[in-house]
Specification:
Six copies of one chain form a homohexamer. Chain A is an alpha/beta fold and 326 residues long. The first copy, chain A, has helices spanning 21-37, 56-59, 62-74, 82-93, 171-178, 201-216, 229-236, 242-246; strands at residues 6-13, 40-44, 97-105, 112-119, 125-130, 153-155, 158-164, 184-189, 219-224, 253-257, 263-269, 273-280, 303-308. In chain A, the strands form two sheets. The first copy, chain A, has a six-stranded mixed beta sheet. Chain A starts with 5 loop residues before the first strand and ends in an 18-residue tail after the last strand. Chains A, B, C, D, E, F: Keywords: Hydrolase.
Chain lengths: 326, 326, 326, 326, 326, 326
Amino acid sequence: MLDLPKFKAAAVQASPVFLDVDATVDKAISIIAEAAGNGASLIAFPEVFVAGYPYWNWIMTPVQGSKWYEKLYVNSITVPGPETDKICQAAKEHDCHVVIGVNERGQSFGELYNTNLIIDNKGMLVGKHRKLVPTWAEKLTWTGGDGSSLKVYNTEIGPIGTLACGENTNTLARFTLLTQGELIHIANYISLPVAPPDYDMAEAIKIRAAAHSFEGKLFTIVSCSTITKEIIDIMKEDVPNAEELLTRKNSAFSGVIGPNGAVIGEPLIDEEGIVYADIDLSKCIQPKQMHDILGHYNRFDIFDLRVNTAPRKNITFTDGDESGQK
Amino acid sequence: MLDLPKFKAAAVQASPVFLDVDATVDKAISIIAEAAGNGASLIAFPEVFVAGYPYWNWIMTPVQGSKWYEKLYVNSITVPGPETDKICQAAKEHDCHVVIGVNERGQSFGELYNTNLIIDNKGMLVGKHRKLVPTWAEKLTWTGGDGSSLKVYNTEIGPIGTLACGENTNTLARFTLLTQGELIHIANYISLPVAPPDYDMAEAIKIRAAAHSFEGKLFTIVSCSTITKEIIDIMKEDVPNAEELLTRKNSAFSGVIGPNGAVIGEPLIDEEGIVYADIDLSKCIQPKQMHDILGHYNRFDIFDLRVNTAPRKNITFTDGDESGQK
Amino acid sequence: MLDLPKFKAAAVQASPVFLDVDATVDKAISIIAEAAGNGASLIAFPEVFVAGYPYWNWIMTPVQGSKWYEKLYVNSITVPGPETDKICQAAKEHDCHVVIGVNERGQSFGELYNTNLIIDNKGMLVGKHRKLVPTWAEKLTWTGGDGSSLKVYNTEIGPIGTLACGENTNTLARFTLLTQGELIHIANYISLPVAPPDYDMAEAIKIRAAAHSFEGKLFTIVSCSTITKEIIDIMKEDVPNAEELLTRKNSAFSGVIGPNGAVIGEPLIDEEGIVYADIDLSKCIQPKQMHDILGHYNRFDIFDLRVNTAPRKNITFTDGDESGQK
Amino acid sequence: MLDLPKFKAAAVQASPVFLDVDATVDKAISIIAEAAGNGASLIAFPEVFVAGYPYWNWIMTPVQGSKWYEKLYVNSITVPGPETDKICQAAKEHDCHVVIGVNERGQSFGELYNTNLIIDNKGMLVGKHRKLVPTWAEKLTWTGGDGSSLKVYNTEIGPIGTLACGENTNTLARFTLLTQGELIHIANYISLPVAPPDYDMAEAIKIRAAAHSFEGKLFTIVSCSTITKEIIDIMKEDVPNAEELLTRKNSAFSGVIGPNGAVIGEPLIDEEGIVYADIDLSKCIQPKQMHDILGHYNRFDIFDLRVNTAPRKNITFTDGDESGQK
Amino acid sequence: MLDLPKFKAAAVQASPVFLDVDATVDKAISIIAEAAGNGASLIAFPEVFVAGYPYWNWIMTPVQGSKWYEKLYVNSITVPGPETDKICQAAKEHDCHVVIGVNERGQSFGELYNTNLIIDNKGMLVGKHRKLVPTWAEKLTWTGGDGSSLKVYNTEIGPIGTLACGENTNTLARFTLLTQGELIHIANYISLPVAPPDYDMAEAIKIRAAAHSFEGKLFTIVSCSTITKEIIDIMKEDVPNAEELLTRKNSAFSGVIGPNGAVIGEPLIDEEGIVYADIDLSKCIQPKQMHDILGHYNRFDIFDLRVNTAPRKNITFTDGDESGQK
Amino acid sequence: MLDLPKFKAAAVQASPVFLDVDATVDKAISIIAEAAGNGASLIAFPEVFVAGYPYWNWIMTPVQGSKWYEKLYVNSITVPGPETDKICQAAKEHDCHVVIGVNERGQSFGELYNTNLIIDNKGMLVGKHRKLVPTWAEKLTWTGGDGSSLKVYNTEIGPIGTLACGENTNTLARFTLLTQGELIHIANYISLPVAPPDYDMAEAIKIRAAAHSFEGKLFTIVSCSTITKEIIDIMKEDVPNAEELLTRKNSAFSGVIGPNGAVIGEPLIDEEGIVYADIDLSKCIQPKQMHDILGHYNRFDIFDLRVNTAPRKNITFTDGDESGQK
């Protein structure tokens, strides 16, 4: 008889130690200890938690922001690397799964990725996902990832997938995860007080999480960062009214959404903290009777989605024989 | 200079004259007159408004429901036909666009479709969409449509698309409309007091409308039916506790959702009535800067969706010449 | 509201005036008068009623049968022709539909077809069907028809299709009729006392009629010929033990089968007579909920049947311009 | 000189241990031992014998049935898996072929298939067939299979094909098996006391088996389940009058039909038991002279059936090179 | 009841009045009178009876033959014209059908055709056939006809077709006549003592007539010319050893062949005279049971013969609009 | 310089060991040894030599003949298979080409073909031809082949084609071989004492061979079977007067016909034996000057014959991708 996992999930709403990679890793490890201590088997961290979000893109001109790019670059990490080793070690020690956002360096100095890491409770870095398209002002900092990282990972607690921030708007990216049997979706974000005035960030996060949970009949864990006084102070160096710009309400939302699209328990709005929720994957069965867009409620005789999972290649070296490319 | 349409939309929340095709068409025409009188240029009617939803599938056994199927069948319509002619005439007379759900007969007696008609303000039946997959108990009544009706129609007031009820859960169907430039989406539903207890129909409608509007940066008009005492009385013939089963609260939602996913004005919950909203399509421009999943915010080097729009053929008669099939 | 036809059908079980085309046409007309007088709106006659079945193929050697072929040939008819004119006139006078089997001459003297005529109540010869493949010994007499005659004809009393004898075994021929909306199927046969001993003709007729009715949820009218003493006496000329060979029991079955595959009323076995049955096409609706192999119960994404309806051409005369062949 | 197999077949009429997958597998193994002990080389089990049929769909509302769906889901199996291993082992030990119906889990929680397994006497799971379209109320539980499983398997005892229940109504599915040289057809069913009153299940089973055997000139083995007091008691939890609803006579039929469409020996109606029959495949030769719809009695110049055997794909992951899709 | 014609046919073996058109027409008329007087309803004359065969092509060099071409040209006729009027008149007076070969002038002086005329018993010139390809040395004189004259003509005595001499070797030309229902084939020839030594002209005529009759199950009337002393004397003008060259035995054959390929009665070899035979078209029926290459014994799903019947056009005047050629 | 083959051909007139496939193959091999020993490079065997002709179709009723069909079926062969391997081996050992008729089994039990095998002197089975249409009574036994086997095979001794029995009547089938450059035509037959009285089998064979040789200017090798006392005795089991029916004179003809249509040497009539003839293909050149119906003596601007060589398909399995059907 089939027996599906039950576990406690933790959605972390917190800020990194801004642009300080080592301190931020330490902070992450300490949050892991806390949440695991409270029984969490899955701990979701915000987008680019290590080591901060390039707010300058939204409140400075590109040229002003240029030196900040360098600061971010040198505080970014390689994957794997010493920083990921530490986090993996913590996951193993505390027997919990961790999904966490990082700034990942590529090969070229202009190649910085907004990456989510998926780490299992054995401390194994089982996968990573590079955000496909940075959102609006983020294009000034990050390079888009490729289709090779649109994966769902089977773990002891169930199949886990993740998308960063605006990607949760992308119908096709979401469907690509759903179709791999995703039951636990981590959508992580950053607090975005700088969005246009009629853009209610907390609401926009909720709409997308509810939609993904409802369409896929699964659990979505939303983890969002916060903005600390420290961040504002740092930005003030170049933007005198940074405080005004970075303190809008309803800019962050963390919480857990169930298979019917409803929030489980209380979400956190703007405040730092950890939201816990009990997840029972067997709750994903009954709603599938209504709509199973991966099964009886879709029409794969009509819809044929093809996803190119080839890693990006900058160049291909061949021996001149087309049929035998390497 | 591009000048995008502005107009008033009406979302009708009403019940048909149950299983009486002629009386229901008359009622539809009278609602058209009223809404157009109030300035509406687009009037959205509920799913299968003509002439009713097969509630028996949810509250009777299939065998009990069998005779009701026949009643529905003989009160279904062909498209086009005398009933659609009447509705088209009303649209023309009142110079308004109408989207309305009907029970459409196919060629075989088991072939009944849940169809939405799109009629323009010249009284032209510009298109129809047959629901792709009936939802759960509805499978006992309807046959699924094919990909040929997943179309967006250009009209004087803008490009209109429509999906019926549960189809709004289907990521790929929604994307297929978005990609054709849809700016006005009609999502129509039926009041569903018979869903499972943890399924809040009004909320489930709203989640999907918000998601579609937010992902596509467009306007969604939601029209949902209501359940009258008459319907309950008719069902009581076979189901003594029909009243108890068919009167749950929060079972119907009609209203208009804007490009940011937020409800415009006040929606109607459960009550019969008409929701009006002013639509200004130029509001769809600015949000596209953030996420345009049909443009800069998607990755068509990764995602390749192919949609089979071939009409379903039960058989193909040929003249024996492969190259010249008919 | 859809209103489907109700009418009385007559299944004729009778023998022709053997190899006498004029006398047989007279007999057919007199049966039409009788059945129409009893209220029948549809009268089904046996296979090749005009003017007899080539029993010699089963009880003589081919060479012995050769002279009988010539007798049959000169007693065959062209379609249309004076004989069909007479039958059409009778159908018109008695306001009834007639399906009747004839031996039809083609252009070449070796081209004799086993043809069913479909005549409406206005006396119009609306169609004909030439048996596709003659059964076993019949191959000595008849040429197979082509796909152009696999048609269902819409009439006042509903859509009518017909197959002759063994064709009712052909899954694909049957489906080709079903898919055109057939609701009234005429399966006509000849009494076949000469089949192999373990072949129970009456039962074999019933199996096929039940299958077609059940699969298509329609009415099948079975009309079968009988063998008279006259036929036996004529065959005795060349086959002394003709009586013994041609009098096996259970060799003929006529009757009406309903949409559930069950015989309506009492069928006729072996005896000459007319079986009447009241047909109500609305009975074809409810069973379609269970299995509608033309609609929700088939998979046209899997099955793609193509039927070549081109008339057989021995030669094509062209004007030398490929694009405008005649 | 060609020498065709002769063997004994067993058609099992029995009920599973309702919704208890392990106990049902044990029961299946014990029946295999018994039937093989009586000389059977082929043992046919009912549709979804492992571990029961969703009767709730016929006697409860969909919402009431929802929790039963979950019970069925967790008592369904993967193929292959530990349960199929056990059955294969039994087939090998007893040197017999087994065809048995199971509830098979797909990847998504809404994806449950009505699957028939074909196991040979070496204990090899040679194939499986997923029912293409669930029948009426069954649509509430099962997803339809694809064309990849419409196969006939060559075994020591001859070529075996199978269709589940209502599929035997599908002309085109049947023909697809016939055309692969099927000589032994297993049609399995469930006892269906809940069909509409004018639907005589035992008769409806017989009509279809007779038609398939007659059209294909082959042997059909029909195996049907029974309804035990245990099942009724379980259903009584939610449906007080379950006993009345589930005890109609003539709801189950098991037996063997020969190439002429006649039942061989005595079939079992409603009662639990095993029907044995001696099968001699050389009996399939002589009747082919009369009608061979795969050979001389068909017209493949007219009929061109194309069957899509591609497995259903929810999505296709490519390496970006169209010519080398994976 | 079908009643097929019976009649007497006459195959004329005679020589023209060499290169004297008027005298030859008179001779033809006198033969018509004689044969009709003996009861013939169909009288077949040799190839180019009017007014002689260009033997010079076989026994002179082309340049020597040149003046003879001119003699032939001026003794050729137009069709219709005064000469054909006379022959038609004779056919009418004697109530008989006539097929006769003539040298027909075309529009250009180099355009001379080897033409057979078909005249009915009302004196109507119902058709003509121009030899498609002249044989070997004949190419020095005649132009080939086009496909417009490959016709079979229905007459009171049955459907008549004709081919001249070597055309009876052309499988496709023969088949083109057969397929139009030809039952009476006129194959006319000229006495050919000048063929290569191992070419037995009488035998070669018989082989082809037997083949056409056997394949088509029809009657072939062979009419062949003779060589008179007059012809030899005329040729001697330029070819001293003309007598030696033009008197080989077995160079002419006239007679009638029946549907089984056998000669009816006695043919004429070399000698001038008339062969009479009684034709009963009903004899064409029974042999069709064996092989009917226009019906059951052919495979028009395999063979598709297209025949261009467009009259030869030397030039086409257009208005420059391709789609509207005249 | 072109050097055309010269060789000795052997036309075998013999009977099989009736309905005993193994003994007949042995007899064939022994005849190969004998003929090759006498210098033959090409040995032609009768139609369906392996293992006999279904005479019962001509002298019994179809039902009486039914059991004999089964005997023939089990004594038929697959191609290739162990029996063809043996014959190929003999051809290789004796360095000669063999054309031999066999009863070939298809996939369905009603699918028996009248097949000629073409084997070269390396023991390679280079091709087979399935008779397109069985003749008259033969339709009770054989299924017609398709156009894929209308081929001429280039061999060391020249281009070889073959047609079985009545096919040599088919103008279009013959032309299809001619047009591929056929120079050596094998026409094989069975002794047919059972034809209608006015059908002289030996003469009918000769007419067709002469016609084909004359039209195509090629060599025809005719091989015909004989009827032994053994065959008569076996048929006597069911037909007391079998001896009378099966002993008519002039029922078999074997021999060789040259390019002018004349028999070379002495043919064999009725008696068992081998006819030898010296073939010199250069004899096919000169007669082409007179009539070359594949070249200057035809009019391909008028005649356009299209031959469908597609193998017959009962069904087509596709992967759903029209462009890549299998």
